[in-house]
Give the backbone structure.
Amino acid sequence: MTVTAATRVLALLGDPVAHSASPEIQNAAFEAAGVDGVYVAVRCAAADLVGFMNGLARAGGGGNVTLPHKEKAASILDDRSEAVRRTGACNTFWGDASGRLCGDNTDVEGFRRALRSFLETDPRGIRALLLGGGGAARAALLGLLEEGADEVLIYNRTPDRARAIARRIGGPSTRVVPMLRELAGEGFDLVVNATSLGLNPEDPPPLDLTMLPRVGAAMDLVYGRHTTAFTAAATEAGVRTTDGLEMLVQQGAAAFERWWGREAPVDAMRSAVEATQGV
């Protein structure tokens, strides 16, 4: 990679960012696509977010936003995508020709692409259980509804958080389950773990899958070098399962497409992800 004065600079903004695989993924994509760009990770405090986003965008670049700044980033934008408006979060930004700061939440598109790839069938009409109440759950809920899920039940340890995302994004197809025991006897085509449980190898699963008489597939949005308790339990129960690596690749691919206006080299990005995880 040769960096010149004409090279576009794109950056991941968040705190922390040292753990992120995004620089490896995006720089592999830039090289494979033959575009003149470089991607770096920048530890960024909330007070500095406006300056970083505007400065990068006005200089012809852009980037991604990660925890804990996605909601603040959404409030900074001049032009918000439908996904940003509905989820209240922005994870991808760039500048347009008129100098406006534009943004999207490619977590939604990344989830949709990963879901279709995993299920290998049309998700329309499925009945899903969504575990979680944070940003990942918002993206997954919007993705499920946009893919035509017939019904989505949401469970979170803090019911008010589940109700908040249901009010913001859901509708008649969405129902909050306030108590875990209320899920006993329920069957689902898909169970999605959008909680943070699993980031630590010692974390327990967010749900005992044996309490559900039918689970068609299980999708964990957590990824890492270890197998999470959720995916291990699903495998033991004979349920098809996947982790969050493909969503990571696909949201990165969607971001690449926003910045460069061309199809992302997904195979190169997937190979880069697998290399960072020792796959």
In short: The two ends are 25 Å apart (CA to CA). The chain is about 40% helix and 20% strand. The first helix runs from residue 22 to 33. The first strand starts at residue 8 and ends at 14.
